[in-house]
Fold this protein.
Amino acid sequence: MPDASYVLHVWSSQWGLQSLDPICLASIMYLQLSMPGKFQVAESCDPDMSPNGHLPFLTHGHLAHASFPSIVSFVTSLSRARASGVRNIDASLSASQRAQSIAWWSHVEANLGDLVSHMFFGVDANFWGLTRPTLTSVMPIPQRYYVPGRIRESYRRRLETSGLWCLPATEQEHKSPFAKNEKKRDDHTGTFTRAFEREKVMEKARTILDLYARLLDGKKFLFNSHPTSLDVCLAAHILLLANPPFPSSVLQILLLEKYASLVDHARRVQHEVAQSPPYELAPPSKSSVLSLFTFGRAVTKEAKTSNPDDVRFRRMRWAWVTLALGAAAFNVMQFSKALLILNVEDEEGDEDEDAYDEGADLEEDKDED
Amino acid sequence: MASALTLPAPLKKAFSLFPLQTHPPVPFAVRFPLVKPTLWIAPPRTPSVGHVSLLSTDVECLKWQAYIALRGLTDVAVRWDIPPEGALGGRLPTLHVPGTVADGNLLVAEDIPGWVDSQVTTGIDTLDGYKDEHAKDESHAWVSLLEGVVHAALILSGSAPSPFDMFIHLSGNKRRPIEAILSPPPAPLTGFSSFLPTFGANISLSALHPQYTEAINAVSERLGGDTWFLGSANPTALDAFLFAYLHCILHTGDVTRLEVARYANLVAWERRVGTKVEAAFCIALREYRE
């Protein structure tokens, strides 16, 4: 399909970044570096359209590729065709560096990804104060009422296993009338638990961020003098920890103050990406309430071929359905006509109906008859 | 407090009809004193011909078996007659070491490195056996790769338990679910926005296969012809990890096994390390003589 364009479906842009999800942001930045101006971005709020149930996914005609590694491998295969004009930004890596890059990708997605999901979904204050309102503003009714909660639930098991789930809000300032009583009772144990949990999370974050700071080691980019897919992946996660205005921002402050090298690296990647020509926004697909009732969606609904065989097939199919329904209606009418005839002859039937309405005299009438 | 309240006399008389007698503790000798440290593992494979392997079929148990063996310990017994519910924390492996208490001490898997350190006479190594700081950092990346995509592929390639099995063993399974292994976690099978309550996980082996193939390729590339992974002079914890996954994959379903079997260096490495690991263990004989 030479005419079909490459469309990347992502979560919408927020907070000065191209998307509110780290993997979506990484995909956009990667495509801007490897195939600038050759793709469109469709802002979507419906992850169920994707083959694996998550955004981002890249469509090209009938093909769809979901998840960042499969998008990268698809673009790499495109770059091998010389006429496509697509660049492979990992081409300068040696085989050993490429292998290390794959291992580091999975580390970034697992550990930094956990920290990002902890900030967005794990901390109560952030979820209710930032994530949920943002997701609600991009989703239509009725999804906005239950989908953010479901997305949060899907992260629960992973965050619970890593010990990053649902810290009680540390910097909350309740002004509710009951707060004073609660505070007096739970103050000591609550404060200690909160401080201990917070310290555990900070320790974990410090270990992870130290690792990346050592990996970066003052270099401009991780491997070469230009960004690779690993730089893009790392930068996307760091930007989503640094940019959004979190209500409970302890981790963000730690990142901005102590790990300036990582933030600088992320800004450098952003700057490189900004130098590519901007992408077009594809028109957003309409969502219908009826689509909520389907189970297991097909991915591509856009293939409107004007194949004459298909048109004929569609017409014949509708003709068959109409004929079948017509025949069924005709049969029902015939059967109900037969019923009508019986009712006119049998007067007791009418009496029974009246007796049913009256109630008490029913059985006496029946006995007499 | 005790002096302020005294028992009234009639009650005292009533209680004296039922005197409390305390007996001294009865000493009993331990029937089967523990001679060697014993590791409780999930049962190994039982091939129809040939000798019984001592390597567990469960990845977690095999990781710790390999760790103990590669740290240089020998003459450790294994037993596999204890189900996971009987182990400490409801999870295998558990290490039973002869200790100061007559029955010996039970150690959870996380305490095994500490015990091994106490048994091994070499000094403390800040680099944990790796070549340098950079290699040590890189080992974290490889661990997350193995624990992520490779572990998920291994789980998905195993046979799914029937609903009857899941009903019977409802509380027994304390393994990590697939939702906790992958990042980002898989979407529910019913979708986020459908009106049906969420159920299942939208993940399959075919969806993971490209990432799994890339991961195995990367592992093979990085191993190359080295004796130990990441070019370490001596075996490290990462080698134990890698051996456990390779061994389990090579004895499992076809699709995942073929990917690893394509790389001769991985197969040869696994075989070499396997003989070394197996040599460190023996069967806990008491149970099998009876």
In short: The radius of gyration of chain B is 25 Å.
